[in-house]
Amino acid sequence: MRVVMLFDLPAMREAIQAAVPDADILTLPPPGHMASMRAVDAVLATPGASQALGQLLARHPEIRWIHVLGTGIDDYPLELLHGRQVTCSRGATTVPIAEWVMAMILAQAKNLPFSWVTQPPPHWCMAQLDTLEGKTLGILGFGNIGQAIARRALGFDMKVRVAMRTYRPAGMAGVESVTDIDELITTADHLVLALPATTLTEGLMSADRLSLMKRGSHLINVSRGTLVDTRALREHLDSGQIARASLDVANPEPLPAGHWLYQHPQVQLSPHISWNSPLSQQRMSEAFIDNLLRFAAGAELNGVIDTQAGY
Asked: Per the database record, which ranges form the D-isomer specific 2-hydroxyacid dehydrogenase catalytic domain (predicted)?
């Protein structure tokens, strides 16, 4: 069985080889050599490798399975993925992303890092800080990440409300599932975007929807930058309608130098790193290795992506 990795990460390649000694693991050769490669069974891809993946699939239509290390396929050539099995390392980075979200919520409530002092303040013992107790957390999307966020928010005695594109009960004690996204947005003190990026979610947080947010509320995005109308976001931050935007994603990525998101005082921006933890790469590798063993045995794969739906 031949597997092509679209990136060079020796430690991951060695772990895969050790787990599946019979597999022929190759790092993608220069494009000119693609046609001369023998038949390829599977591809291990990573975000940012869409061009290489497109070239490889065009040269090797026999490829039956593609595994994506992350969870999103919005930047991949979907027309080339149709008819093939596509999987992802779903759940591998759920914990660090959920922790990042809670860190942003706490930072907003406790006015961090702005409440730290480096010289004597005007007043000791007094500050205008908020609490999470009794506050409403709205979550758009209730997959693995949304559920992990909800569990942690419940531990802080927050009121948790969720909305999904297709209504279903949340199935988690203490979590309210609602049918109307707009109604959820109007009630949230902190609003988390945890939906996959698809043609249906692009521009979800339009100028109209941003205007529905509670005055002084907090927008958190760990999905994709394409879900938010960035120009409208700036207007709502400037007006005070939205007090803070905590963004781990942007549109485009990488965000060019000089972009207003870098400098706006009400924006907390990180460079798509919320998924990182000491165990993240190991868990993503383990998800692929488990699927590689299943693929070799002809068994059902985990983390299957619906290429028609885009997630």
From this structure: 40-305
Q: Are residues 69 and 166 in the same domain?
A: no
Q: Which of 10, 11, 16, 12 is nearest to 2 (CA)?
A: 16
pLDDT computed for residue 186 by the predictor: 98
List of the chain residues with pLDDT < 50:
none
Eight-class DSSP state of 132:
S
DSSP single-letter state for residue 181: H
Structural domain total, the chain? 2
CA–CA dist 271, 204 (Å, integer): 21
Is residue 162 assigned to a domain? yes
Nearest to 196 by CA among 289, 303, 270, 104: 303
- Full 3-state SS string of 228-280: ECHHHHHHHHHHCCEEEEEECCCCCCCCCCCCHHHHCCCEEECCCCCCCCCCH
Give the per-residue pLDDT at 83: 83
* Cβ-based burial of 154 (10 A; exposed 0-12, middle 13-18, buried ≥19): middle
Q: Does a structural domain hold residue 306?
A: no
Bond preceding residue 252 cis, omega within 30 of 0? yes
Answer whether 0.85 is exceeded by the pTM.
yes
Structural domain of 107: 94-269
247, 268 in Cβ contact below 8 A? yes
- Specify the pairing of strand 267-269 against strand 242-247: parallel
- Whether 226 and 212 have beta carbons less than 8 Å apart is answered as no
* DSSP string for residues in 90-122: TTTTHHHHHHHHHHHHHHHHTTTTTT--SS--S
Q: End-to-end CA distance of the chain, in Å?
A: 27
Task: Report pLDDT for 140.
Answer: 98
Active-site positions? 224, 253, 272
pLDDT at 37: 74
- Residue 116 shares a structural domain with residue 264: yes
Which distant-in-sequence residues (6+ apart) come within 8 Å of 151 by Cβ?
98, 172
